[in-house]
Inverse folding.
């Protein structure tokens, strides 16, 4: 059974949920600064080290519906505590990893544990807060990700300057312990009165499709693209991914509660939001690899490179409230159009920058552009299109397609950086392709979005 909504929930409840979300968000924020150190410590290529990010995202995506279903059935408090404990176990494995293979196992455990922290926290708020106060509470949790990306690079820079990369991950362990203890004392037990059916076939098919796509893209070779496509380790997974697309469509059409609700995805504005989410995910993947690029292109120290991300985050921070206000005044179409063109300009500047100063200007423009795509615009479009019973599914679509973009972006950029004549040349090629893609996305969004429909 589900607990009654509290008219006056304790303030410490939101504080505990805030800390739990910060725990998961900080792990994402410190991965970028850690990559150059991991590459050096384990003697990895850019292609291999990118799996530090990819393994987490893939496990996180696979775990989202699993944790949501479990929370509805066995109770949100139990699942939340299990998720925090799983995340802590994965963190310990990563921090103590004697090899890169063991580190990836830890990243998978971390990703699977983190997959339920934010969704379960949101569900707890829905149980504990009256409708008129839920928006503000969920908004505070959403703001944690911005805070994490402000804190993460600074913490990463300090720790890498005085200690090893292991401390970047080990730092989460005390916070995980605090979150677990406070959650055990504070979180009320609740579950859905009528749990939704679990789309097991859908999540298995989607995960297999994305894993095959990532493996295929990871094998691309910028110096001999045609020859690389002829290799079975490349075309085999890509063909499998393509073959699984119609399988996924068929599975979702038959599912009682599909991950990708066909009736919702068939609407043009929703298709635009999904395309924007993929684009935003690809750009987010560049965040993770920008530190490695700065080290290779401009000779920046690994500990210093993490600080450079602060300017990009500043662009997102400044642009987000402006984009939110403009959405109410002019609608999504002009905001998205300008935002995607800013992403193209920023990524183009990063791709062609002859100096660190121009590179940094490009990252600020990139952040400003991303602020008009990620978060507010996606939520605005999906909330306008989704019915009351579709809102959770619609926001789930946003998460799924963001993850797809992150996986594709990380795998492709890492492959280009590894296989091009020079690492810097490979990165610049990848950034240039993303810039062109952002221009195409702008045209697509203008076609899919009506002037004031959303």
């Amino acid at each position: 059974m589900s607990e009654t909504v509290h008219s006056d929930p304790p303030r410490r409840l939101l504080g505990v949920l805030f800390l739990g979300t910060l725990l998961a968000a900080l792990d994402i924020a410190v991965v970028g600064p850690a990559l150059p150190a991991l590459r050096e410590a384990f003697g990895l290529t850019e292609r291999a080290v990118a799996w530090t990010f990819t393994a987490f995202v893939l496990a996180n995506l696979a775990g989202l519906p699993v944790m949501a279903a479990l929370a509805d059935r066995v109770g949100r408090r139990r699942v939340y505590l299990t998720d925090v404990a799983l995340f802590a176990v994965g963190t310990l494995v990563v921090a103590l990893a004697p090899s890169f293979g063991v580190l990836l196992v830890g990243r998978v455990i971390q990703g699977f544990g983190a997959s339920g922290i934010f969704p379960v926290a949101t569900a707890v708020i829905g149980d504990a807060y009256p409708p008129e106060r839920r928006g503000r509470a969920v908004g505070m949790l959403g703001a944690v990700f911005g805070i994490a990306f402000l804190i993460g690079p600074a913490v990463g820079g300090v720790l890498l300057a005085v200690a090893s990369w292991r401390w970047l991950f080990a730092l989460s362990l005390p916070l995980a312990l605090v979150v677990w203890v406070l959650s055990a004392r504070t979180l009320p037990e609740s579950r859905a009165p009528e749990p939704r059916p679990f789309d097991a076939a859908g999540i298995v098919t989607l995960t297999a499709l994305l894993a095959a796509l990532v493996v295929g893209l990871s094998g691309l070779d910028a110096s001999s693209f045609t020859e690389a496509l002829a290799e079975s380790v490349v075309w085999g997974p890509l063909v499998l991914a393509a073959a699984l697309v119609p399988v996924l469509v068929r599975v979702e059409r038959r599912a009682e509660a599909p991950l990708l609700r066909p009736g919702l995805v068939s609407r043009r504005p929703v298709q635009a939001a999904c395309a924007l989410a993929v684009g935003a995910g690809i750009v987010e993947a560049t965040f993770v690899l920008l530190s490695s690029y700065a080290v290779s292109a401009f000779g920046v120290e690994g500990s210093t490179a993490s600080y450079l991300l602060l300017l990009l985050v500043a662009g997102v921070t400044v642009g987000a409230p402006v984009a939110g206000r403009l959405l109410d005044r002019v609608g999504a179409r002009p905001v998205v159009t300008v935002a995607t063109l800013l992403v193209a300009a920023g990524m183009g500047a990063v791709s062609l920058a002859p100096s660190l100063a121009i590179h940094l200007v490009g990252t600020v423009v990139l952040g400003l552009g991303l602020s008009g795509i990620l978060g507010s615009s996606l939520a605005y479009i999906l909330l306008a299109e989704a019915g009351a019973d579709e809102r959770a599914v619609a926001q789930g679509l946003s998460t799924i397609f963001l993850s797809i973009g992150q996986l594709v972006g990380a795998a492709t950029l890492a492959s280009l950086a590894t296989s091009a004549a020079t690492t810097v040349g490979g990165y610049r090629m990848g950034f240039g392709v993303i810039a062109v893609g952002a221009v195409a996305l702008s045209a697509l969004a203008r076609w899919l979005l009506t002037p004031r429909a959303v």
